[in-house]
Amino acid sequence: MKELWTEEAKYRRWLQVELAVVEAQAELGYIPREAAQAIKERVQLNIARAKEIESQIGHDLLAFVRALEESVGPEGRYIHRGLTSYDIEDTALGLAFKESLAILIDDAIKLAGVLKRRAFEHKKTLMVGRTHGMHAEPITFGLKLLVWYDEMKRNIERLQAAQKLMSVGKISGSVGTYANVDPEVERRVCEKLGLTPARISNQIVQRDLHAQVLTTLAICAGTIEKIATEIRNLHRTEIAEVREGRPHGSSSMPHKQNPSTCETLTGLSRIVRMNALAALENQTIWHEQDLTRSSVERIIYPDSFLAMHYLFVRMTSVIEQLIINAERMRQNLELSRGTIFSQALLLRLIDKGMARAQAHELIGELAARAFAEQRDFKALVAQHPEIQRLLSPSELDELFNYEYHLKHVETIFARFAAD
Questions:
Q1: Is 301 in the same domain as 381?
Q2: Which of 168-182, 235-249, 288-302 is the least confident region?
Q3: CATH code, 66
Q4: Which of 55, 132, 255, 287 is catalytic?
Q5: Is 235 exposed, middle or buried (0-12, 13-18, 19+ CB in 10 A)?
Q6: Which of 152, 196, 307, 352 has its CA 20 to 30 Å from the CA of residue 368?
Q7: CB of 352 closer than 8 Å to CB of 338
Q8: Residue 349 and residue 324 share a domain
Q9: Active-site option among 59, 248, 250, 294
């Protein structure tokens, strides 16, 4: 990914587009074929010379064109014929986005694969589900992983759609009217480069496209932060249900094992989101072109793609190496003293004829006693006369059983078996 966003890579893409234009114009008879052949044979990319010229004239693309013309000789005058800077820059940017998104799609597929594999590995690893940070009902760690996997599958689809959307180019001239360049040149250039011509452009490809790509990256980064935040919470000393395979220690406290990678990923996710906001701001320009977005794009595009690549790769490593403490998960289940079976009990009492409000209040009181007196909830339930009248000991055993909550886990996992 880094190689795609170097300055040299940018200049090479510019040259690739310029040469495609030369070839298309020669095919259509707008420039001599001999000139096109001379350009192809003699042209040299001299970034140092382009930079030298830029320091004199203050325009990077024009300096680039002049350096190319110098390297070719007289036939170099046909380079950039009828074009504006952003015919080259935006078409080259389309190539950069297409190639960068291909890498991210591959990254996302790898992360999704690891999430699915570990989800099936822990399909029956029992743990407590938490809502509002509080014990709710039993789940499995595999189900938690499967939720993340399903979200990553949607991210892959989003990235693929973004790649299709952004694989565009434009060779339409200064304000998009094709006054000095034939639309057929644009069609041929884009075909040669594997891009689609923009249906309409002014001096630039419209920035809603770029904004959509960066908001897609922001959603992907949000998924990474979501996973990282959950791992950080489960990593806490008081919970200790998972641990990063390579936790970072402390310079002063030898006992510490910190979830530092997930903390880093959380921070970088915020950068990607903020860059998406900048891309949304870049949609607005004056008339057919201005440069308010140009300086922003030089930062947010490489930074977002590089950060997203890092986020995917590092999270894949975290999930692969994640240590799951199934015994601690089981111990934590017991902290709620059986109250996590309250809904199953509530529904059975309703089925037996007790009013919902009465059953809800009764169970709530017994649960509060279990916590206050540090007693087993099931024992309190079994001793209550109204419940004794309605439910047999065997029925209580059925309700206070973890398998009650896991009976449809296989059904859920079966939905993903063919993915």
A1: no
A2: 235-249
A3: 1.10.275.10
A4: 132
A5: buried
A6: 352
A7: no
A8: no
A9: 250
